[in-house]
Design a protein that fits this description.
heterodimer; A: 89 residues; alpha+beta; Ubiquitin-like (UB roll); five-stranded mixed β-sheet; 2 helices; 5 strands; 20% helix; globular; B: 359 residues; mainly beta; four-stranded antiparallel β-sheet; 1 helix
Chain lengths: 89, 359
């Protein structure tokens, strides 16, 4: 099962410890996380389901390419990192 | 008389309290490090609201029921889902927050960037987009002023009839509903826009009222600081007459006396691409005769080399009409106990100030 970690800067606002979550795409994995932590969704995605402008998601060390649909595929044992982009600093 | 003042800044919310000697001191700090774009003290139930714009993680809204000691995150307005990419709007800033009327318990209005007006019936737990205003064909003419997208910065709920609401849009005119938001019409007769081509100068839906305020007592009286002038209405916003606060027609903020509809304060700046105090000297322009004449109030304000801008929500007057608070982009906070005859510096060292509001 893929594992998901979140920037520690989110800890100022809400709890989101690293965890494993099932899914074959970034969208599926994140939806599994949001199912258990619904408030987190609005910190990562906007209301249209797009990645927030200054949030970056890495899968296996690569920034994802589909920031609107989050369709990038995820392998079974891959690590996903949700980070804040320096562009928003 | 209010002895508490909320100051919303680029780096947090500061709740000031006035001590026995009259001095204002910070009683409470909240959201340190986070931009606070708007605050509301709801006189109906004592709740405080703080709207945040977390740069990375989006706009948030918090409510406090214990005077800012603790805060609870509530919901933010959300734009409806859309299939067409051009229609996929997302909340950028909560720019105005108002109680929806003394007879509408728990109901709030929120004006936002990129232009949606939202209503909550449950103290911010949920929000619904006002579809009538959002769907108006004239909204297509709105455009951003200062921000990339248009926004609603002023929501004036008539104290005598909560179904009558007047909102100000930058850039998109002044809009009126008589039926609680079921239908809207734009009303800017008398306003003009020097920043548009001549044939569009008086077009209603492109006017840029920077701030709209309503007299709480004489509810037919409105004041507007517009992008290229100041205007007053004495007929409930149906028509507007230009007034000329010195030394410059440009500015963002206006406040009106709670009992005297002829008294208002403006904070003029050099127009419009420059946006600093005229000659670097801070001034507040006060009229006591409905805009026929103005005094330039300078006592206690910097007499030179001042580059403070007072944003549209950066000026407030308390319910006595005597105490003013004013906060600037350079982090200076002033207060006056005598309607602006003399200002005193409360702090020179705050972060850039977005909004001041008496509790």
């Amino acid at each position: 099962m893929p594992s998901v970690s979140f920037t520690s800067n989110l800890n100022r606002h809400l709890d989101c410890p690293p965890r494993a979550a099932a899914g074959a795409t970034v969208s599926e994995v994140l939806q599994a996380v949001f199912h258990d932590n619904p408030r987190l969704r609005g910190y990562i995605l906007d209301e249209q389901g797009r990645l927030r402008q200054h949030v970056v998601v890495f899968v296996g060390g690569q920034a994802i390419s589909d920031r609107e649909g989050l369709t990038d595929s995820v392998e079974e044992e891959q690590d996903i990192f949700v980070m804040q982009a320096l562009s928003g600093g | 008389m209010s002895d508490r003042l909320m100051v919303a800044t680029r780096k947090g919310l500061f709740l000031y309290e006035r001590g026995a000697g009259g001095a204002w001191n910070v009683g409470n700090e909240s959201f340190i490090g986070d931009p606070v774009t708007m605050v509301l003290s709801d006189p109906r139930d004592g709740a405080l609201y703080a709207a945040l714009d977390l740069g990375h993680f989006g706009p948030k809204l918090h409510r406090s029921d214990d005077g800012a000691r603790t805060w609870t995150e509530v919901s933010v307005p959300e734009y409806p889902a859309a299939k067409d990419d051009d229609d996929k709007k997302a909340l950028k800033v909560i720019w105005s927050l108002e109680p929806a009327g003394a007879d509408r318990d728990n109901a709030l209005w929120a004006g936002t960037i990129p232009g949606g007006l939202f209503r909550s019936e449950d103290r911010g737990e949920s929000w619904v987009l006002n579809d009538a205003l959002w769907s108006d064909p004239l909204r297509e003419k709105w455009f951003g002023g200062g921000f990339d997208d248009p926004g609603i910065h002023s929501v004036c709920v008539d104290p005598r009839d909560s179904r009558r609401v007047v909102v100000g849009v930058s850039c998109g005119g002044v809009w009126i509903t008589e039926d609680g938001g079921a239908s809207w019409r734009v009303s800017t007769r008398g306003m003009y826009a020097e920043y548009m081509p001549p044939e569009l100068r008086e077009d209603s839906a492109i006017q840029d009222p920077h701030r709209v305020v309503q007299s709480p007592q004489a509810t037919n009286v409105f004041w507007v600081q517009h992008h290229n002038g100041a205007f007053r209405s004495t007929d409930r916003g149906e028509s507007w007459q230009e007034i000329k606060p010195p030394p410059s027609a440009f500015g963002f903020a206006v406040a009106t006396h709670p009992m005297d509809a002829n008294t208002a304060w403006f904070v003029p700046l050099v127009k419009d691409e420059c946006r600093i105090p005229v000659d670097g000297k801070m001034v507040v322009a006060r009229t006591r005769d409905g805009g026929e004449s103005f005094e330039q109030l300078r006592s206690g304000l910097p007499a030179g080399n001042a580059y403070d801008v007072v944003f549209r929500h950066g000026l407030d007057v308390d319910d006595t009409g005597d105490t003013l608070a004013m906060g600037s982009t350079t982090g200076t906070l002033w207060a006056s106990n005598d309607q602006g005859d003399r200002f005193e510096v409360v702090s020179n060292y705050l972060p850039p100030i977005y909004c001041v509001r008496f509790v």
